[in-house]
Amino acid sequence: MATKYEKRKQYFVALIPPSPVYEEALELKEYFRDKYNSKAALNSPPHITLHMPFLWNEEKEKKLATKLHKFTGRHDPIKVCLDNFSHFPPRVIFIKVAESDALDALQISLHRFFKRELNIFNANYQDRPYHPHLTLAFRDLKKSQYHLAWQEFSKKEYKAEFMADKIAVLKHNGKSWDVLKEFLLESSYSTETNPELKTTEG
């Protein structure tokens, strides 16, 4: 019989951009795979992280869904603007998210909610300012390739915007991350809607 620790899986919470931003970001990830041999970013869909990965008992996914449904029912959609490329030396290159009070407030609210309602929090969260971004390449980007890639992308431009009207909870399947369920950001959203989590097929 599996112990309670063996039943725990990794999850995180993020904004998943809609089309065409989703496809554009995915194409850029594939470009990094093909030209710079960096494919780790393809282990998850294009996203902007709101809550870093945490452990949760998968038998209690319904409780997690109920809590997230409660949270998103109190928040409205927000506008997200993407503004060119940036980097975290020595391995990370990403699409930069423009500063947004609304996005910062949503992220802070989510962290407080998780800590209060689920006793989940990132221990070092308060020591790190929130820096929303959409990762294109990271841990498997070799330093030599990183420098070449940043020389290229520092000269490129990319502008896009979208309305983030839902947040997603993603679950690690042992190899990569799958979107498990999305929750509408709509303060008038009916609390009668069934929030039960169902795993995605495939």
Describe the structure.
This protein is an alpha+beta fold and 202 residues long. It contains 4 helices and 8 strands; from the N terminus they run E-H-E-H-E-E-H-E-H-E-E-E. It has helices spanning 21-36, 61-72, 101-118, 143-153; strands at 8-15, 48-57, 78-88, 92-97, 133-137, 159-164, 166-172, 177-184. A 4-stranded antiparallel β-sheet has the order 2-1-7-8, with helices on one face. A hairpin with a 3-residue loop joins strand 3 (78-88) and strand 4 (92-97). The two termini are 26 Å apart. Mean pLDDT is 90; it is low at 189-196 and 198-202.
For the structure shown, list the relevant keywords.
alpha+beta, four-stranded antiparallel β-sheet, 202 residues, single chain
Separation of the first and last Cα atoms: 26 Å
Shape: globular
**Arithmetic mean pLDDT:** 90
Can you give the helix content as a percent range?
25-40%
Strand content: 25-35%
Summarize the structure.
The chain is of the alpha+beta class. Helix content is 28%, strand content 30%. The chain contains four helices and eight strands; from the N terminus they run βαβαββαβαβββ.
